[in-house]
Write a structure and sequence with these properties.
Helix content: over 70%
Largest sheet: 4 strands, mixed
Oligomer: single chain
InterPro entries: Permease_MalE (IPR030802), STAS_dom (IPR002645), STAS_dom_sf (IPR036513)
Pfam family, one: MlaE
Number of domains: 2
Structural class: alpha/beta
Organism: Neoroseomonas oryzicola
Number of strands: 4
Protein name: STAS domain-containing protein
Distance between the termini: 86 Å
Number of helices: 12
Keywords: Membrane, Transmembrane, Transmembrane helix
Radius of gyration: 34 Å
Length: 361
């Protein structure tokens, strides 16, 4: 018994009949649900039921999905029948499977292998498309390349200069503290200059590119994937890789050495400012930089920056094109692009460090 409705079991015609009367709405169904009858019900007596909504109909059908409807007004019977058809067409999800550690490890392993397979497929498709463009340059949309050069490079100049200047200031201050104990503050430009040109300049520029541009690539392409625009391009016979991916790869590869160079120059400017406050003129700083820095350091750092840009753009594009269809797809793609890009450039930087050490560069 609940306010607004009454439900009772009656034995009729050799079976259990559930007689319902009153108004069976959402609030009433919520109060009746914990006290739903256990016996098998073969029919519903709806003669006393004044009205019913979808929640009340679901309550009745949860008790006996195949029960016969007896009596009741036409609107009440229509609501119950429509609800029965809806539940049959789309049954509610079942309980989640129990947690099994071995099965979970297996599913995670299979998922990682599939992701690796998809990544290898994307890499192969990008290489094939690049070779096609080399033979047919008209396939590359140069207007898109220029637009992405502006987005990736020109608009990132202020942020890159600011971060580079601050990094130079921080490195100069922090390195001067231990070197002061030995009266070797004059070697601060050597330490900061080599660190920026060989490692920190390309690496920090790559982090800026991954956070600013890699996520933008993933979000843009992810939105196109969710809206099925990429599928529409494929249906029309347009190479989506040549149209969407290749211009971004070219723009990021060209822009990254420029961003790394700006990061280096801004860092050296910040270091020079701090050396001036410590009592060292520009002539002393210039002398140390010319003595210890070589063109090999600069070229090696710019080469790494170009590789970082290519990898970051590729990871961002792949994350966007492999986005799902749900409401969180674009956000997940952007997150995967940023995390994957940063992890990839750090791992690549370690590989380059070992390689340059072995080659004596």
């Amino acid at each position: 018994m609940a306010a607004g409705a009454d439900a009772r079991i009656e034995a009729r015609d050799g079976g259990a009949v559930l007689a319902v009367s009153g108004r069976l709405d959402t609030a009433t169904a919520a109060r009746l649900w914990p006290r739903a009858p256990d016996p098998a019900v073969t029919a519903f007596d709806l003669a006393g039921l004044e009205s019913v909504d979808s929640a009340g109909a679901v309550l009745l059908l949860a008790i006996a999905p195949e029960a016969e409807l007896r009596g009741g007004s036409e609107p009440v019977r229509a609501v119950i029948e429509r609800t029965r058809k809806a539940l049959a067409a789309a049954p509610p999800p079942g309980p989640p499977p129990p947690y099994h550690p071995i099965s979970s490890i297996g599913r995670a392993t299979v998922g990682r292998l599939r992701d690796m397979q998809a990544g290898i497929g994307f890499l192969g498709e990008a290489i094939v498309t690049t070779l096609r463009v080399l033979t047919k340059p008209r396939l590359l949309r140069w207007s898109d390349v220029l637009r992405h050069l502006d987005e990736v490079g020109t608009r990132a100049f202020p942020l890159t200069l600011l971060l580079g200047f601050l990094i130079g200031v921080i490195l100069a201050y922090q390195s001067s503290i231990p070197l002061r104990r030995f009266g070797a503050e004059v070697f601060v430009p050597n330490l900061v200059g080599i660190s920026l040109l060989r490692e920190l300049g390309p690496l920090l520029a790559g982090v800026v590119l991954a956070g600013r541009t890699g996520s933008a690539f993933a979000a843009e392409l992810g939105t196109m994937t969710v809206n099925e625009e990429v599928d529409a391009l494929k249906v029309m016979g347009i190479d989506a890789t040549a149209m969407l991916v290749l211009p971004r790869l070219v723009a990021a590869t060209i822009s990254m050495p420029v961003l790394a160079l700006l990061m280096n120059l801004a860092g050296l400017a910040g270091m020079t400012l701090i050396m001036g406050t410590l009592g060292y003129p520009w002539a002393a700083v210039e002398s140390q930089l010319q003595q210890w820095l070589t063109l090999k350091d600069l070229v090696g750092g710019l080469f790494k920056a170009a590789c970082f840009g290519l990898v970051i753009a590729g990871i961002g594009c792949r994350a966007g094109l492999s986005a799902g269809r749900g409401p969180r797809a674009v956000g997940d793609a952007a997150t995967a692009a940023v995390v994957g890009g940063i992890v990839a450039i750090v791992a690549m930087d370690g590989v380059f460090a070992v390689l340059f050490f072995r080659l004596g560069i």
